[in-house]
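Supplementary Methods, section 5.1.

A reviewer requested that the exact input to the structure prediction be made available. We therefore reproduce it here, unchanged from the version used in the analyses.
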Amino acid sequence: MGRQAHEAPGGQVDLGRQPIYQELHLFPQAAHPQLTRTSTRLERAQRSIHRKLVPGDQALNEAPCRLICFPHAGGAASFFRDWADLVPDDMDLAAVRYPGREDRFLDPPPASMADLADPVAHACLASGDVPLVFFGHSMGAAVAYEVALRMQSAGSSRLTDLFVSGSAAPGRSSSSRDPLTMTDAEILEEVAELGGADANTLADQELWELLIPSIRADYRLIGRYRAAFSATAPLDVPMVAYYGRADRDVDAASVAAWADATSSTFAMRSFDGGHFYLKDHAPGLVADLLGRRAPFHE
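The structure derived from this sequence is encoded token-by-token as follows.
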């Protein structure tokens, strides 16, 4: 029986000036001598244009804290591009670039959670002494949790907070669908119902055929992860879990079970909306996250 979870209202914070948006280059980038027409179309459809802060840049080295965001199944780093307007000057914004999408479109998608979490953990451990804050949505919550476990096992204490969103706790699921057995048509139907892609993308057969391999791979990955999950030593990191009150696959009980994943403090908060509630509530969500993050010491 875990500690009792509670919901608390989010505080308002001064978001400060707009920082530079940075994508964390966690994987070697494949050599693309020339983008094909379909790849160019894919990038245009996903609007994957970002302001980037290159490794070694003075501003990156001076930042006292870094927020690393982990996208959902089928998602990409660009999902968090608008958060650049919401984080303060003392925080770098980074997003994990999963293989098989956007500028890593030609890289094969990971087949297992270890294939995805291991290199991300390695990159985080090797990225200096900056304190880290993780935010993961849906599948990204599980990836962030697994990266946090790997960092803790390596003896690192750089992670100050873990924020999970739109996800049942590991080993818990209230969904009636099994990701391992879903057909492409069923995945398309679910993506449409959950609101994970816009209507134009879903209606474009050519574009959908480009996207489905990475989405299918992510569904299989999270399905295998759920099936094989076994409890491990809890994290010693404060955790907060967020969810949409109208999310059909994530209920309050499955979210509250995240309390068992940490020996530190735990809280949860719900928002109006479904699985992708954060599209409509990004300012309030980020303000709540910033108000809850643990103090760090330079």
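Residues 37-292 form a domain with the Rossmann fold fold (CATH 3.40.50.1820). These observations are discussed further in the main text.
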